[in-house]
């Protein structure tokens, strides 16, 4: 068996679906099926059984999976070590950030990593939670931050904190809004982020919980512009509380509706197979120090 076969086996085990596994591996479904067949021939026993909604591991597959994952982790660790043998070696660390994180923590984290690891070339990529997740799964990032709940077998997730989200409205509309809550929330345009943002699912649940069906929405993926639109009288929005409070301190014409504060979990996520990668270990340790201090 080779590493490609092991990677296919692990991916099918995690997704429990050949089509999804093929998409993640950028292969055709027949190619993934052939790799699974080849590894089953090597071990001499079936590793999966088909069920109505996909594929599940047999007992032999369950025993093999942690060994295969450990071998893949060791391969990445060995490759990372081999790179350090070059005279021109520069350690790179790719970190995915999302806008809801307090800017002060981003500054502290960057300063800590640069102080304790001066020879590391840090590359910070901003995006929304869904985009960061996609880049991690595509192995374009060592790790990144994610807002909301996540349950994916091939990912590790470290909970860091809950981020408070506040409902904001144009200052002049606050009395009318407060007079008939929550029904009055239906009367306004909502400014929301797209479905790849961590706050999107939470907002949909908020609407469902309060039996709301907003007639008009504006999609905007930049948090500061969302606050600008609300201040200009465009509509309502859910934004990180610390950003709403900063806007109030800057005398922006918004109001915070305290009755509807939400708490969203912030986590640091990374692929299992990169758990021992030096760049990932460095980032994980630095993040835990900043958030636990």
Automatic annotation (TrEMBL):
The keyword rRNA-binding does not apply. The keyword Transmembrane helix does not apply. It comes from the Bacteria. Residues 1-58 form the HTH lysR-type domain. Keywords: DNA-binding, Transcription, Transcription regulation. GO terms for molecular function: DNA-binding transcription factor activity; transcription cis-regulatory region binding. Belongs to the LysR transcriptional regulatory family. This is LysR family transcriptional regulator. It comes from Conchiformibius steedae.
